[in-house]
Structures are given as C-alpha cells and as structure tokens.
Amino acid sequence: MKKFLLKTLLYVLTGGLAFFVVTFTVYFFNLDMKLTSSLEPLLLKWYDRIPRNQHL
Amino acid sequence: MASKKFNTMVNPEKIKGDTRYGDLYKPHGKVRKRREWRGLGDTLYDYTRWMGILLTLGKFMVVPRNIKFFFRYRWMANYLAVPMMVDRFTQGLRGEYLRIAHEEQDLIIIDVAKLLGNLARGDRRVGNDEEFSKINVLVDENEMTAVMMGFPNLKCTSRETPSTYVPVLLNQHAVEHYLDVVQEYGLPGDVCPMPAAEAGTSMDDDAPILGACAIQCNTTCDGSLLSNGVLSRKLEKEDGIPVFQLPAPLRHKEEDVQDYAAEEIRRAIKFIEENTGHKWDWDYYFECARRVNIATKARNEWLDMNKTPYPQVFGGNLALYTETNYMAICGKVPEFERADKRITKLAEKAYKKQKMAAPEYRHRAIVWGVQSHFYMDFLVWLLNCWGIVPLTDMLSCINTEMIAETDTPENREQAYYDMAMLTEEMIMRNRTHGGYKVLLDDLFEFVEQFDADMIILWEHITCKALDGMHGLFEDRARDLGVPLMWVNHQLFDPRVVSRQGVRDQVNQFMRTVMQEEPLDPTLEILDDENSW
Q1: Which residue range(s) make up the domain with B441?
Q2: Nearest to A54 among B35, B181, B532 (CB)
C-alpha cells in the first residue's frame, strides 16, 4: 500500500513538474501570443468571406 | 513666473528582473519576443494569473455556440490578444502594483467573457435563445447603467463594449475596418472614431441582434448621437427592438436641470418595465447603491493616497478599472465590491511601506483630456520611460459623493436624483460638458491638491468638445508656472497618429523643454506600428 502511494505521488509530482515546465516555457517565451498572432490573418480572411447585408 | 519643480524621488528598493523593457519588443512585430522577468516571486505570480486568464478564455471557448459566435463576428478575433493586453498594462509592475493590476484586469476579463457569453446566447444569428433575449436590455457603450440598478432579473447588455471599446484596448488596429465601412457609405471621416466605429459595426452587419428593448443616451458626447441615429434606425425598423432616448442635461452642474434629469430617469425605468414586464425592485436598487458607495469610497481613498508622495493606485491601474466599475458595473456585480476591498488592502500595505512603482519618480502629472484608447498603456510607458507618475486622469475624476443607500420613502424619491447625478457625472462627459469650471478650473484645482508639477493634456483631434479650450489651458498653465504638454491622437485610429507619434510628442517635450534624459532609453522609440 505504502509503495503504491509513493508511486502515485511520484507520478503526480512528475506530471505536475512536466506540466509546469511546458506551460512556463509557453508563458515566458510568449508562445501563446506568437501562435494566436499567426492565426489572425487566417481569421480575417474567413470574416471577409462571410456574406453580409452591409448597408447604412 | 518660475516653473513648479518636483524633487526627484529615488526608489530605495531595486526593481527586480528586467528593467530595459524596450528590449522585449520585436521590431515590426505583432507580439513581443518574450514575457518580462520580474524576479522569481513576481514572475511566478504573473504566470499563475496568466494561467487563470487562459482558463477564463478556455471556459468561454468550450461552449459550442460561443465558437459559432467567434467565427461569425470579425471583432471577436481581437480577443486572441487578451493575455498580451494584460502584459502591456503590467509592464514594469512588481509587488503590490502587479497584484492590483491583476485584481482589476482579470476581473474585467471575466466580466467581459460573461457579457460575450450572454450576447452569443441571445443573438438571433447564433444562440437564438428567445426567452433569454427577452431579459436583455441593450445600453450604449459609453452609457451610465444606473437605470438598471433596480432590475435584478434583467441583463444590462452592451453590444458596443465588446465589439468596439474592448477590441481597441486589445488590438490598436481593431476598428479600422469599421471606420472604413462608415466612410465608404459617405459618413464623414473627421468625426470621433468611437461612435463612428459603433455605427460601422452596425452597418457592416456585424452587431449581434438581441434584447427586449434598448436605452440610448447622449453620453459620452454629442458624437454618440451620430451613431445612436444609425443604430436605433436599424434596431427599431429592422430588428423590431424599441429604443428609448435618455438625454442627460449638458449643463449638469446647474440646479435647474436636475428635476428634468430625474424625470428622464423615471421615464426610462417606466419604458424598461413596459417592454420587459419586469418591475422595479427597491431592495435590489439600494443593495446596488450601497455597492456604488463602497466603490466611490475606495476610489476616494486611492485618490487621497495619490495626493501624498507615495501614490499607489494610479496610471493604468486607476483608469481602466474606474471606467468599468463606475459605468458598466454601477453596483450590480458583487465581485467588484470584493475587488475594491482587496485593492484598497494592497494599496494600504504598499503605502505603509512607502513603496514606489519605478526606480525614480521625476514628475507628478495630472493627465487631462480624452486619452488615446488605442494606447491606453501609455500611462505605464510614461512611468517606465520618463519617471512621470500619472497621479490621476480626467476620466477617473468622476463622482465623489455618496448616494442614498437606505430604503425610506424620502430616499426612494432621492434615488431618481442620484441615478440622474450618476448619469450626468458619466466618465469624460462630466468634464467635457458642463462649462469651463469642470474642464478648466477643476484641472488646476487638482494640480494643487495632488501637488502635481506637470500637466499632460491629451488632444483628441476629432473631439470637438475640447478643441476650443486650447488657448485657455495654456494661459492658465503659464500663469501658474506648470509645464503643460499637449499630446495629439485620434482615439481609435492609429493610422492618423501612431503610438510612436504619441510618444514622440512626449519625448520632444521632455528633451527640449524639460532638458531631461529618459529613465529607460530603450522605450523612447519602439517599432510597434504592427503590434496588437
């Protein structure tokens, strides 16, 4: 039982650490904004294609 | 007369982490190279708040109708830049200042996400929840929402806030498309771009359609009337949504207009009752009034602190939160009461320790006029680049009086006058309208009260309200020996005056008139024309 708990704790800690390393890398190097900024031109093209009833 | 001079204050505490903020900008880039290193503790704190923001955005995007909404409306693309907006507003902030900024910004993000969710749910093109749509009352973007303080079961919904106001904070180029649409249809190009962009979203068929009725107002200014005409025609004639015009008196300091103002509030409430079937609830009204007073008291305390050598809630931390809390929230959201208390606690803590937000405080400035919305983090830049502390701005100088908050027959009558007063004292228009006392005389009273040695006067070049006062400001500043710097901009449109164009005006004034060198020279010239 004790061994099982220790093993689980180790998995949780390793998983937590891996999550932190990955997300902190994304955070610090601004990777989230670099990704979304590359999506923006594609989205604008998409919006241009939507038929609109444009009038005054 | 000799110029007023402030003795530079040097921060005894070293600012941890990055101090050359210009190095983080990628030339010609949309986003920055990396986020700021603020020392271990503050960086980890900022990281956890970044995760919180992603969680808020993620929660919004897991709802299928919100995804549909995102791909339907062009202005939704700007919300990709939410984390970057927070980075811009928190540049250089550490300790309590960083925490205050996050208390405010993260709450505003949650509130806007809820508003977007409501729009998506009620919008006839997306969620089309007709029952939900019936409990929504549409209000203008720059409209005091006091008339909604007695309707606990109705949603006070602004379409313009998330479609034009917030996007420009997120992305400086956000509304250029709508400004072009407006001009393509022959509306003039030299009007204020805020109402023009609002009209543009409607003309571009890019405004959600929902609501039982709408209340339009002549605040912030006469320019709003232009867009209100375009919007109300579409709402009433095409969408079948009845619209009420709530005209707040322009000479709002005059006693003889107050009965009229209160009567208009009564009529607006009656209109809402008739169109929604909901009745005014006095218990809820006085609950909201109590929260309005808490917000007013907190803001008064922050401003009192800013009159001392150790200001705490100032600049970007004061401006954006005040606008949101005063106008859009107006006591209706309990979370803002808790945030007010937490911010005050943090400010008091920092004040007791005599903390400073920058390596040096070289000038104490009052920022007056209508700020450039596409560069609202300019206030942070002033502090970091030149050591100029923006103690308060015109839009934060709103109502300081308490309103009636206990339910008595007399107070029920007083409540109409209180709501009228809050509406008349709406951000910006309480200064740009109402005579030269509120715009000119009060500025120089604030200069005295805050012991300021500098005035930064925004000149929004298509704002007709301030243009005629140019010479009067200069004469008075000259008489009192207070250096006054004009900063031109065009509110929503960086194609007319860019962010660097804004900075250049300050840089030239500081180098030539004040004969000073910047605190952080890397921020003086930034290639951020393409930036969000």
Answers
A1: 9-523
A2: B181
